[in-house]
Give the backbone structure.
Amino acid sequence: MEDLYSQVTARIVAQLEEGRLPWVQPWDSSAVLAGLPRNASSGRAYSGINILILWHALFEGEFTAQRWLTFKQAEALGGHVRKGERGVTVCYADRFTPKDARGGDGGASGAGSGDVSAPSGGGDEVRQVAFLKRFTVFNVAQCDDLPGHLYEAEGSEQRADLVTIPEAEALIAASGASISIGAPHACYMPRADRIEVPTQAAFIEPINYYRTVLHELGHWTGHGSRLDRDQTGRFGTVSYGREELVAEMCSAFTCAALGIVPTVRHADYIACWLEVLKGDNRAIFRAASQASKAADFLLAFRPIADAAADAGEVA
């Protein structure tokens, strides 16, 4: 798995050094709608590092649908992967308790899809071992004889020109977060557990108000009473860069799930991100996993009918 860690990290570092943010690529092309990659068989959305891996493959292959299948899933649907097509490696992470731990009662503990951080230990906690499964998936455009609806265009509604997005407004209100609107800057203050953002009228492109609020809500999810991430780092430190990376990808993932198409993204922290990624080839995996958890935390505030379709992670 070290090869996978190194390959993905090296590619993302190269993109950042070119000034490109890999988690916003789906909005660089009008041919692909905003959204998360999904398994074409189950309809479930991928999460964590798999989002970045599949978004990269989407644009590299010039595909126009964010639907993916394993070789066996394509066959189960009556189709097949075309000869000579190259798949994309995605991964599924979890943990299990060895048989010799706590009376030998083993079994998976359910750490969560895409979470590749090392298990915590110490004290009297049951020892757990992390494991990672690799799967190869193919875009539906690389397959023949699949059911016709899998090849259909994924809708045509673009929301970049909307100023009021009801789903986003409902999510923000339902979160219960303390948000002060009208500040001269955007920030989250962990000690006060409060968000400050400018009014929507202060944005040259009003749609970016939502992207910014969701970025700060990404930080908000890391509070000790919620997902409990380390938010003690000061500007310019590695820990600060890690948290900004999580919040940035959380905003990108949440925007994608809500169909929001921002026109600007935070690129102010590229130097911090590069320092983090170059120092640890697993950092982007951990950050993407934490960002997915943060996005899921926020998306849970949507109306039940809207949230149900996006749950889960599959091969």
